[in-house]
């Protein structure tokens, strides 16, 4: 890999990396390690999103096969790794929040999206999740003839730093130059919407898969929400569940569980519950069950006081490129619910909201 001038240099270990994994693995190829870290930044306001890029050597393809986080939950709310055709900025660091917060006229960083073009979510981390190791023979293809020319690290800082503090949170990327047959991808299901005060609400989304000829093999899932209800003496009740929905006939559907989790546990990628595939005509669906003890409306948004309802599906494909469609966002509560969707039947209403 080739870095832009401000980023750290490639650390060539030229050894097979060994670390804890929840998938069987026995690599027959060398795995090297690259440090993608924040260049000693100093966040000076709450809920600041910062991005930093590296440029990938365009002369060859690499496959990322593992993600080793270097971060702590007391500093970083979450991190996201994007693959980009073009980065959102040419600066070494920029403000890449999902919305630009009100601030003084004097800004420490310019504001832009993580990617200017060709945005792909490759990895996400929160709540002190451990290292993620992909299954043997599976990797995210970057560089060469892929559409990913840059990697951009986004870190959401949820506290202000003191004048003598800096941060170099980030990710150690485990990669190989061995060409792999199975390409990895990530599909994100999310919602917009709002949660009424003092209520239990379902934030739901459903996403039809239309890309003919592609069969995806989900192998991991991850859930992500914010801190709704945790500021009160009684904690919030939360469950996030994801499903593959397949038509059996014109009147019946089969819902197969991809994964279900309390989002207050480490927000890592966990193994898919069922060994299933997703094909054109299937639907991916997700629900976040949230209990608000607040006296005000909570909206979906980017700050720690807002909420999020995200369900990530990590998958592999063989002999083809990953899905072109990489995310799906519903209107959420109160405009969208599963039971008002004419394309959904046999909804597992009780099962989707209990652990």
Q: Taking all residues together, what is the mean pLDDT?
A: 85
Oligomer: single chain
Give the amount of beta strand, in percent.
35-45%
By helix and strand content, what is the structural category?
mainly beta
Could you explain how this protein is built, in words?
The protein has 355 residues and is mostly beta strands. It is built from no helices and 24 strands. Strands 1, 2, 4, 10, 11, 13, 14, 17, 20, 23 and 24 form an 11-stranded mixed sheet that branches. A 5-stranded antiparallel sheet has the order 7-3-12-5-9, with no helix packed on it. Strand 18 and strand 19 (252-261) form a beta hairpin. Mean pLDDT is 85; it is low at 3-24, 99-104 and 229-236.
In short:
This protein is mostly beta strands and 355 residues long. The protein has no helices and 24 strands.
What are its keywords?
eleven-stranded mixed sheet; mainly beta; 355 residues; five-stranded antiparallel sheet; 24 strands; disordered N terminus; single chain
List the helices and strands and how they pair.
Elements: E1 10-15, E2 31-37, E3 48-55, E4 61-70, E5 76-84, E6 86-87, E7 94-95, E8 115-117, E9 120-126, E10 132-133, E11 138-143, E12 150-157, E13 170-176, E14 182-191, E15 194-195, E16 199-208, E17 217-224, E18 238-249, E19 252-261, E20 270-271, E21 283-292, E22 298-299, E23 310-318, E24 327-330
Parallel strand pairs: 11-14, 14-24
Antiparallel strand pairs: 1-2, 2-13, 3-7, 3-12, 4-10, 4-11, 4-13, 5-9, 5-12, 6-8, 14-23, 15-22, 16-21, 17-20, 17-23, 18-19, 18-21
């Amino acid at each position: 890999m080739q870095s832009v001038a401000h980023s750290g240099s490639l650390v060539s270990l030229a050894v097979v990396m060994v670390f804890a994994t929840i998938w069987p693995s026995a690599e027959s190829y060398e795995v090297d390690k690259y440090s993608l870290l924040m260049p000693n930044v100093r966040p000076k306001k709450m809920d600041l999103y910062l991005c930093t890029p590296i440029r990938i050597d365009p002369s060859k393809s690499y496959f990322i096969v593992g993600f080793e986080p270097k971060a702590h939950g007391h500093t970083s709310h979450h991190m996201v790794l994007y693959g980009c055709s073009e980065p959102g900025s040419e600066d070494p660091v920029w403000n890449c929040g999902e919305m630009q917060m009100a601030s003084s006229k004097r800004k420490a960083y310019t504001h832009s999206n993580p990617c200017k073009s060709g945005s792909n979510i490759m990895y996400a981390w929160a709540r002190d999740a451990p290292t993620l190791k992909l299954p043997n023979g599976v990797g995210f293809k970057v560089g060469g003839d892929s559409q990913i020319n840059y990697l951009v690290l986004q870190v959401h800082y949820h506290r202000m730093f003191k004048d003598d503090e800096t941060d170099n949170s980030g990710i150690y990327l485990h990669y190989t130059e061995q060409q792999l047959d199975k390409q990895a991808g990530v599909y994100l299901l999310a919602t917009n919407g709002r949660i009424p005060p003092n209520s239990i609400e379902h934030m739901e989304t459903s996403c039809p898969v239309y890309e003919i000829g592609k069969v995806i093999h989900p192998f991991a899932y991850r859930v992500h929400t914010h801190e709704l209800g945790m500021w009160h003496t009684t904690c919030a009740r939360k469950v996030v569940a994801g499903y593959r929905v397949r038509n059996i006939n014109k009147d019946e559907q089969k819902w197969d569980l991809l994964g279900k989790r309390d989002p207050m546990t480490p927000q890592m990628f966990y193994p898919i519950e069922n060994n299933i595939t997703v094909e054109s005509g299937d639907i991916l669906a997700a629900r976040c069950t949230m209990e608000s003890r607040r006296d005000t409306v909570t909206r979906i948004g980017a700050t720690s006081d807002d909420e999020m309802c995200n369900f990530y599906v990590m998958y592999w494909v063989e002999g083809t490129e990953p899905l072109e469609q990489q995310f799906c966002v519903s209107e959420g509560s109160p405009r969208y619910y599963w039971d008002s969707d004419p394309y959904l039947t046999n909804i597992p209403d009780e099962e989707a909201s209990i652990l």
